[in-house]
Amino acid sequence: MNADLLQALSAQRIETPSWGYGNSGTRFKTFAAPGAARDIWEKLDDAAEVQRLTGIAPGVALHIPWDEVEDYGELGKYAAQRGLTIGAINPNVFQDEEYKLGSVTNPDEAVRERAIAHLLDCVEVMKKTGSRDLSLWFADGTNYAGQDDLRSRKHRMRAGLKRVHDAMPDGTRMLVEYKLFEPAFYATDLFDWGAAYSHCLAIGEKAQVLVDLGHHAQGVNIEQIVAFLLDEGRLGGFHFNARRYGDDDLIVGTSNPFELFCIYAELVFGANSVDDLTRRTAQNVAYMIDQSHNIEPKVEAMLQSVLNCQEAYAKALLIDRDLLKEAQGQGDVLAAHRVMMDAFKTDVRPLLMELRVEMDLNPEPIQAYRAGGYQAKVTRDRGTQTGGGGYPVKEKVRS
Ligand code: AOS
Ligand code: ZN
Ligand code: ZN
């Protein structure tokens, strides 16, 4: 394999979410998965299995308080022993009664202060775990016209983000996630990339936009948003998943393989740009998965998700960029398009098997997982946890 390709592919990183390993899913029913992780320690064990088989997924995102522990030093050590690092810290300002009318945009100042205090606590968790990214998503919004003043809510969002931003240590980043709708159905306070971007620009250098693939209207060209934000130096990260109708329902690269390829293509173009800012931005993007598997076996689903990202990236790296530029320069619409399609249609599986051999991994991770007995072992050890709907509640922590 070509040395540049090998280098790029072995340096790829995909962060997996702790919440994807436990029982969580839709708001309708959460089906209990045999052997699903019961606490953060078991979630790290599962993530280590995904890392062991793929070699490109050492980071694990935490959700606070779901993953709250007394001793984060111990958690960091536990992760390191398994070849893992602590990724983005995700605060939770949406599961408590107080947040019925919003968190940082709540009309009640006391509630806003409480939300900001939690966000600041999460900055402390970042310091203790060595995490680089604070990843913010808000359920804030309104359900009816007139329910609250839209501009006041914008001001409250800006003020809250600014306070947290200014408390963050150098070298860290605040990732601001937007979402078209849900759970607020009339107006979501951070409703699209433009809203997130405006706040980021206003509050400071550490703030960057996070693009969750599930959070757009049908037909939105996400790769164009990616290109735009990269060029502005404000693309901070991704939440990868696939959607048919809304949110983080499906495994990334299942219903949207071409979209995922086009997104990776923009990132490859950005990483090779002559523009310094774009290049630096592309090199620092956090690639995270945000999926709540409901009917799929959890670890295998995560494994599949990481592998789908790997395939999309490999195909994007195969794009003949010189040929593409040439066709673009000549205004040759279809030749340019064919350059993209040639890469997209390439079967990269043999190449990736070769890569894994080079990386001392089993060339067939899914087969290796299925043959390895991990699922049977955790099913035996952990049993099947029933009950619980929607998002998990705060779990008892292991002392
Ligand atoms: C919610 O829709 C967002 O995608 C969040 O990023 C994420 O799902 C959440 O933080 C997990 O609770
Ligand atoms: Zn998300
Ligand atoms: Zn989502």
Automatic annotation (TrEMBL):
Region (Disordered) location: 380-399
Limits of the Xylose isomerase-like TIM barrel domain: 70-246
EC class (word): isomerase
This protein's record includes keyword Zinc: no
Pfam families the record matches: AP_endonuc_2 (PF01261)
Keywords: Isomerase, Manganese, Metal-binding
One of the record's GO molecular function terms: L-rhamnose isomerase activity
InterPro entries per the UniProt record, alphabetical: L-rhamnose_isomerase (IPR050337), Rhamnose_iso-rel (IPR013457), Xyl_isomerase-like_sf (IPR036237), Xyl_isomerase-like_TIM-brl (IPR013022)
EC number: 5.3.1.14
NCBIfam families named among the record's database cross-references: RhaI_grampos
Stated name of the protein: L-rhamnose isomerase
Organism encoding this protein: Deinococcus rubellus
